[in-house]
Amino acid sequence: MTDKRLKYADQITLERIKVLHPAIRDKVREAYLNVNTHMLGKCVRLRLAYTTRSLEEQDALYAIGRTKLFDASGKRLGKVTNAKGGQSIHNYGLAWDIVLLLDTNGDGNFDTASWDTVADFDGDMVADWMEVVDAFKAIGAEWGGDWKFTDKPHFQMAFGMDWRAMQEKIHNGEFEIEEIDRIKYKWIKL
Questions:
Q1: Would the pLDDT of 7 be above 90?
Q2: Which of 110, 138, 154, 169 minimizes the number of CB atoms within 10 Å of its CB?
Q3: How many CB atoms sit inside 10 A of residue 39's CB?
């Protein structure tokens, strides 16, 4: 039987969830489906903007604003991240970033991105962003909005480890390999 909640899901997010660490994949998927089905109104959807990143993708983000100073139109770029490849929990499949998608004209296309953390787009008297935060915290996720240097789109389930401990597990061979869509992922043993 088909999960009726998939009606409210977008394929991009489902594909991104599929490449999260197996230890959190199902929990994140369930929270995502529940948020879209039961917490956000018909004009708002949750998207996972980033999940697992390769070391190369992380290094490319780290370069923005450092060695890659300008975009294609000549606009000066600011720093995106302080983490090099291997120094982000995203590199281990244990982190994800969110964005809200809005259907601003009621046509069923959620084509406007929002990182507004206080707006109540669905009119239920609770900020939509915070509804998402509560749902992910309920599954044990840590929210970057609670940190001293806030990162409000960021969530992670690091199992008490920092990136150094995770990197050490990789170096010590404490990982398993999983192939997803012909790409091999190294998942640290938890």
A1: no
A2: 138
A3: 18
Residue 130: give its domain's CATH number: 3.30.1380.10
Q: E strands within 23-116?
A: 44-50, 95-102, 112-114
Report yes or no on 78 lying in a domain.
no
Calpha distance 114→181 (Å, rounded): 30
Q: Measured between alpha carbons, how far is 184 from 8 in angstroms, rounded to an integer?
A: 29
Parent domain of 92: 4-53+88-188
| pLDDT tens-digit readout, 145-163 | 999 989 999 999 999 999 9
Beta bridge partners of 185: 178
d(CA 128, CA 170): 37
In a domain, 11, yes or no: yes
Q: Is the dihedral of CA 178, 180, 182, 186 positive or negative?
A: negative
Number of domains in the chain: 1
In a domain, 76, yes or no: no
Q: Is residue 14 part of a domain?
A: yes
Distance CA 123, CA 128 (A): 9
How many whole angstroms separate alpha carbon 160 and alpha carbon 153?
20
